[in-house]
Amino acid sequence: MAEEFEFELVFALPEGEHEAFALSDAVFEAGFEDALVGTGQAGLIGVELEVEGDDAEVVILDTARALIKALPQGTILREVRPDLVRLADVAEKLEVKRQALQQRKMPLPVSGGLYRIDEMVAAVMEASKPQKGQRRPRMNIDAASKWFRAGMAARKVNAQLTMCEINPATIERSPRPEREEHYPS
C-alpha cells in the first residue's frame, strides 16, 4: 500500500548566476507542482515535497533523479532532510510547543541542538503513551507521520552520499571503491 512521505532535497548548484524563478519552473516542469522551493541560500536550492510510494528510500532517490535532470547541468544532491532535526521542528510537526517536548524524556542531542530523527521518533512514540496518573499528551502524531516515515530513509541516503555509495550528480549507486587503509607504523 502506498504511503506519503514528506522530505526535503537540498541541491548544490553549479557556479554562476541562477534565476530563482527559472529554478522553480524547472522543479514544477519535472512534475512537482506542489513542491515548496527555497532559493534563499546562494549556491543551493531546497525542494520540500510530499511524494507517494511504497518505500521511502526509493521515493527519495527517484525524486532526486527526476529533479537533478531538470535542474542546471552540474547540480549535485547535497543532503536529504529530515535527518538531523531541531526540537522546535519536531514540535512544529507535532503541533505542540517546544516546551511540551522538553518536559518529556528526549534523546541526547548529537551536536548543537540537533537530534537524529530516528531517535526522536522513538522518544516521541514513547512520550505519546499516557503515563499512569497523568493526562494523555496532546501530540498530533498523524500530522508528523509523513515526515517521520521519511526520516530513516533520509539518514540512510545521506550516509550513502557520504560514503560515496551514491553518485551525487546522477543519484545512481556507485561501485564500491577499493579502500586503502592507512595506519601509522
Proportion of helical residues: 25-40%
Number of helices: 6
Residue stretches low in confidence (pLDDT < 50, at least 5 long) are none
- Relative strand content: 15-25%
Number of strands: 6
Shape: elongated
Mean pLDDT: 91
Specify the biggest β-sheet.
4 strands, antiparallel
Give the H and E element order. Answer: EHEEHEEHHEHH
The helix-and-strand class reads alpha+beta
> How far apart lie the N and C ends?
55 Å
Strand order of the largest sheet: 2-3-1-4
CA radius of gyration: 19 Å
Overview of the molecule:
There is one protein chain. With 185 residues, this protein is an alpha+beta fold. Helix content is 38%, strand content 19%. The chain has six helices and six strands, in the order E-H-E-E-H-E-E-H-H-E-H-H. The chain has helices at 20-29, 56-70, 87-94, 98-102, 117-127, 141-162, and strands at residues 3-12, 36-38, 44-53, 76-81, 84-86, 114-116. Strands 2-3-1-4 form a four-stranded antiparallel beta sheet. It has a two-stranded antiparallel ribbon with strand order 5-6. A hairpin with a 5-residue loop joins strand 2 (36-38) and strand 3 (44-53). The longest helix has 22 residues, at 141-162.
